[in-house]
Task: inverse folding
């Protein structure tokens, strides 16, 4: 079955039965196909006790395609909420709003800030909110290049320091750290994080390619927002971007909003790193909340139209949503399965979480149902319908 042919389906089956079903009942999703381990599998999906119970079930009237819930590795805030300062109610609202964009699990991301403030934010990270699952925090900083800070406050940037890192990790569940691989003493931090099972992404960096390669060889798995806040690619000096594109064991994170990266550069990235591009939104508080003045960590940010900039005009996060990013990657030439993979199993691979970003028997039924226009029909978390169009 081709990615497009599942759509020649009869009208949708009413899904009301799912919303009222009890958790211990077997429930059919009423879909025509599902993406399972990177393959489009015809047939309906069954859920039991909040978990995937069966695929490929005969269905005369399925509608849409069940795909894994989206995983976003970089979310600074959403729906008017900035995570660095969010309380439990703020997290609850933002995590509920994220479901509307197909994101069912994500990493709240803290940009460089005073250490105590970051530790407080880590301590305040809720385990569950009832909305999108929080997989742990992404620390974007403070061990970044002073030359490639973007909007990160220079006063709080640090050269690599193991004691600082240990204090941060002790404060809360850190899942991913972005650091610059050319800084003095950085390898000790990389080795420490690898031992602790914390994923490492290279970014906000002026590294040469050989410096990036050394950190990748030590266990860094990804690059943070490719092309943004790093030494520009040059054919005699390819830098972190070139190093990440040239090797096949690195996941390339991309903000695919048409603003952070030009379409041609995004096409180059996709052609070089097909199947290992992780879409990220880098969403900030203004995402899902409209134009206005917001905070991104300690930085004042204005959202106008679809862009978010600090008062000096530098890009400061985005208002992109993950479903838009999936559509944009599909428009760039990725197949439907590939575009969905870039929002699901590829980011989950960075975190090495076996149940995130995939539909598998026994795994939690975090599911997005899409139609042929990549519109969201439904979003389920732990088998319960939370968003229905
Ligand atoms: Zn950044």
Result:
């Amino acid at each position: 079955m081709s990615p497009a042919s599942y759509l020649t389906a009869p009208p949708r089956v009413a899904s009301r039965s799912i919303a009222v079903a009890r958790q211990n009942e077997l429930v059919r999703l009423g879909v025509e196909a599902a993406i399972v381990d990177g393959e489009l599998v015809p047939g309906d999906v069954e859920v039991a006790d909040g978990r995937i119970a069966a695929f490929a079930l005969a269905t005369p009237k399925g509608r849409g395609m069940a795909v894994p819930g989206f995983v976003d590795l970089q979310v600074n805030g959403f729906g008017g909420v900035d995570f660095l300062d969010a309380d439990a109610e703020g997290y609850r609202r933002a995590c509920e709003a994220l479901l509307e964009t197909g994101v069912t699990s994500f990493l709240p991301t803290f940009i460089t800030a005073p250490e105590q403030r970051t530790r407080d934010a880590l301590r305040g990270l809720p385990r569950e909110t009832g909305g999108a699952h929080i997989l742990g925090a992404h620390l974007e900083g403070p061990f970044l290049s002073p030359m490639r800070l973007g909007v990160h406050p220079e006063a709080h940037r640090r050269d690599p320091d193991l004691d600082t890192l240990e204090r941060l990790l002790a404060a809360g569940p850190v899942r991913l750290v972005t650091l610059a691989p050319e800084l003095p003493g950085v390898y000790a931090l990389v080795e420490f994080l690898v031992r602790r099972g914390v994923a490492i992404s290279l970014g906000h960096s002026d590294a040469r390619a050989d410096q990036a390669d050394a950190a990748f060889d030590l266990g860094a798995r990804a690059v943070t927002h490719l092309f943004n806040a790093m030494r520009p690619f040059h054919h005699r000096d390819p830098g972190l971007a070139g190093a990440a594109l040239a090797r096949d064991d690195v996941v390339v994170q991309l903000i695919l909003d048409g603003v952070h990266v030009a379409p041609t550069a995004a096409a180059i990235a996709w052609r070089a790193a097909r199947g290992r591009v992780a879409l990220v939104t880098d969403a900030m508080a203004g995402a899902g909340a409209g134009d206005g003045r917001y905070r991104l960590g300690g930085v004042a940010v204005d959202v106008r139209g679809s862009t978010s900039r600090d008062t000096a005009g530098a890009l400061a996060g985005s208002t992109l949503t993950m479903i838009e990013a999936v559509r944009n990657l599909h428009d760039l030439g990725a197949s439907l399965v590939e575009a969905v993979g870039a929002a699901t199993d590829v980011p989950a691979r960075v975190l090495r979480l076996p149940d995130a970003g995939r539909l598998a028997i026994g795994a939690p039924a975090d599911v997005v149902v899409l139609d042929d226009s990549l519109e969201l029909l439904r979003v389920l978390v732990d088998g319960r319908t939370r968003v229905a169009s």
Q: What stands out?
A: Residues 140, 150, 204, 225, 229 surround zinc ion (CB under 6 Å). The chain is about 25% helix and 25% strand. Residues 92 and 130 are 7 Å apart (CA to CA).
